[in-house]
Design brief:
By secondary structure, the chain is an alpha+beta fold. The chain has a domain of 230 residues: 3-Layer(aba) Sandwich (Rossmann fold), CATH 3.40.50. Helices cover 18% and strands 34% of the residues. The strands form eight sheets. The chain has an eight-stranded mixed beta sheet, sandwiched between helices. The chain is globular.
């Protein structure tokens, strides 16, 4: 989006509705977001926001009074402003990293830049050069410095606490804030910028014997937090602090021997008491809801359409966010930022049919002003409902899934089984999902299942996917597909499977393992040669220093396996003779996550047996980011689905 069009975008309204059943232009679903994220300045006079343009994510600053763009910051091809912060009223901080494709969601090395809102005094204030940083605190009482944890590869990734000058990049090591008796891999500062919690990492002989220990600071003394863990390797994640900074909140699973899920605990600095506040019966809870001063007001559970639990209802901020939920029923509502005095806030609303809308609110009066939409051409009543459903696997395991169907038909539909990537950790959730919405608008249902190994269900659920590529994880996808048939949702003669990254692997594994279930498959930037993958395919996961390679090998051994013959049995390139389905395979020639060699090896194997297929390769990375390539991809994918499962008449109902 060009800067000259930003003001016009802000003025767009819900005009020009498309009637139900009318086709929405393909590009509208997959277009770059005109607004990605937005924050208000501490004094409430300006907003900063990120937006997508070409292969970049840039940042702009706009004055709220006259709607004038004060400045815009870009950093070159494939460079994204990943996060940004108001350092003070005149200066913004930008965390900038390289993203090579729209499926490239691995944590990227990110440099830190700062600039004045008029565009002047722009400079890099932290360079990722064999070292990294985490922002600990914006230091509410200091406009010139922020608090960061710096870690260096040669130092084993230990956090060292520093003050960073946001004007000249000068670093000051704070010995007074640094634990002396142990090496923390993570430190956490309270709402005033005082380091109060440290997490120690104790390395074991393998990935299952590493340990973490929590330490709390009392004055200048660090004390180990007494945790009676029933797990060999408990997980801990900091959520935040109370308003008076005398209570810290954690997510942990240390008290669950089996079926472990992250619950929320409070730690009282005065009594040293650690107490369970809440644990959901199905999903992890790791995300906090915050007030203007950083106070943890409650927590969010990513379950169904989202659930929230509030610790306090008396605080003004808590009343405000709960009022927002009441005002925007059926929406996922979040406060992105407050002014320093807590009187104004930027609010984003999202849902399955809303890619994102931004509002400026007055906290006390609830007076709202609409600011912008992420994809203003899309209208909620044009789009389809995404339904959270629960599916039982053949061994009884309960799986969460998302089902999107056209508005005008609910049964005997052509079905696309869309398998998410990862596979370990990511998961499909209730949100605007462009692929599902596009295909629903064209008459297709989409089913997204969170198979074993997916995230958000606890470590034990994720670990059920260990060494199960092509085995139980694939059976879960099969069982979800058969569920859709049994429910009468899918026409059994019109089902295709599709996915990217690991989902690309699962697509090929699906048409190999279940040759009569799927009529076609689309493999997108997928892993296809499991032996090459395990031995080192040259991806960015194989790079880095010796410590990184050691950790990666431990992970691969635990989650993928070391038995090459077993991997051969679930490797698509070694089993193509079983494929009956029609194929469309897609890759980026510049992919560093899953090198294009996987695509080349699959092509060679298919050519070797005379199997016909359609193909597309673009000069992209891990997933297509450029709009013209996205349009080309989904145009051809739609034509492919129409050819193989879209033209036939539905099977008549019994």
């Amino acid at each position: 989006m060009k800067i000259k069009t930003l003001l016009a975008t802000l003025a767009l309204t819900w005009a020009g509705l498309v009637f139900a059943g009318e086709q929405i232009p393909l590009k509208d679903f997959f277009d770059h977001r005109q607004f990605v994220s937005m924050q208000v300045s501490p004094d409430g006079e300006n907003i900063a926001f990120t937006y997508e343009e070409g292969t970049e994510v840039k940042l702009a600053v706009m004055n709220l009074a006259d709607k004038k763009i004060l400045s815009s910051f870009g950093f070159g091809e494939q460079m994204h402003v990943l996060n940004f912060y108001w350092g003070n009223n005149e200066r913004v901080l930008m965390s900038v990293g390289k993203v090579t494709g729209n499926l490239d969601n691995l944590g990227r090395p990110a440099h830190l830049y700062a600039a004045n809102i008029d565009g002047s005094k722009r400079r890099q204030i932290f360079e990722m050069q064999r070292s990294g940083y985490r922002l600990l605190s914006l230091l509410p009482d200091d406009d010139k410095f922020v608090l960061i944890a710096k870690n260096h590869w040669a130092d084993g990734g230990v956090d060292r606490v520093h003050k960073l000058n946001i004007y000249d990049g000068n670093l000051q090591f704070l010995a007074s804030e640094q634990p002396e008796l142990f090496n923390p891999y993570s430190v956490i500062a309270d709402n005033k910028g005082k380091v109060r919690i440290a997490v120690e990492f104790i390395e074991g002989k393998d990935i299952d014997s590493h340990q973490t220990v929590i330490h709390a600071r009392d004055g200048d003394i660090w004390n180990k937090v007494s945790v009676k863990s029933v797990r060999q390797q408990p997980q801990f994640e900091a959520i935040g602090f109370s308003a008076d900074n005398q209570t810290a909140y954690f997510a942990s699973d240390f008290d669950m021997a089996t079926d472990a899920r992250m619950g929320v605990f409070s730690f009282d600095f005065n009594s040293s008491e650690l107490k369970l506040i809440h644990r959901d019966d199905e999903v992890d809870i790791t995300t906090g809801i915050y007030g203007h001063d950083g106070e943890v007001l409650g927590v969010f559970a990513d379950k169904g359409r989202g659930e929230r639990l509030y610790f306090t209802s008396k605080a003004q901020d808590s009343k405000f966010v709960q009022s927002l939920e009441a005002a925007f029923k059926g929406q996922d509502v979040s406060v992105t930022s407050y002014t320093d005095d807590g009187k104004k806030a930027i609010v984003i609303t999202r849902s399955d049919r809303n890619p994102g809308e931004f509002y400026l609110f007055e906290v006390e009066t609830m007076k709202a002003k609409f600011l912008a939409a992420a994809l203003p051409k899309l209208k909620a009543d044009q789009l389809a409902e995404m339904e959270p459903v629960t599916i039982a696997a053949r061994d009884g395991l309960k799986m969460h899934a998302m089902l999107t169907r056209p508005n005008d038909q609910k049964t005997k539909l052509p079905l696309i089984v869309n398998v998410h990537g990862g596979p370990f950790g990511p998961y499909d959730r209730w949100q605007y999902f462009p692929e599902a919405q596009f295909f629903a608008n064209r008459g297709y249902a989409t089913l997204q299942v969170n198979y074993r190994g997916s995230g958000n269900r606890g470590k034990d659920f994720m670990d059920k996917g260990r060494r199960q590529w092509g085995l139980l994880m694939q059976d879960d996808v099969t069982d979800a597909t058969k569920w859709a048939i049994e429910q009468g949702i899918a026409d059994p003669e019109r089902i295709c499977i599709y996915g990217g990254s690991y989902g690309g692997y699962a697509t090929l594994a699906g048409v190999i393992k279940e040759p009569d279930l799927y009529k076609c498959g689309v493999g997108y930037v997928g892993v296809y040669d499991m032996i090459w993958f395990r031995q080192g395919d040259g991806s960015d996961g194989d790079r880095g220093g010796s410590e990184q390679k050691k950790m990666m090998n431990q992970w691969s051994s635990a989650y993928i396996g070391d038995d090459l013959e077993a991997l051969r049995k679930v490797s698509p390139v070694h089993n193509v003779s079983r494929i009956k389905a029609e194929l469309f395979i897609v890759h980026g020639s510049n992919d560093v996550r899953v090198p294009v060699g996987h695509y080349d090896r699959l092509k060679k194997a298919l050519d070797g047996i005379g199997k016909d297929y359609e193909e597309m390769v673009k000069p992209e990375g891990h997933g297509f980011y450029q709009i013209e390539n996205r349009v080309a991809l989904y145009t051809k994918m739609y034509e492919f689905f129409e050819k193989h499962i879209g033209a036939k008449k539905p099977v008549a109902a019994d």
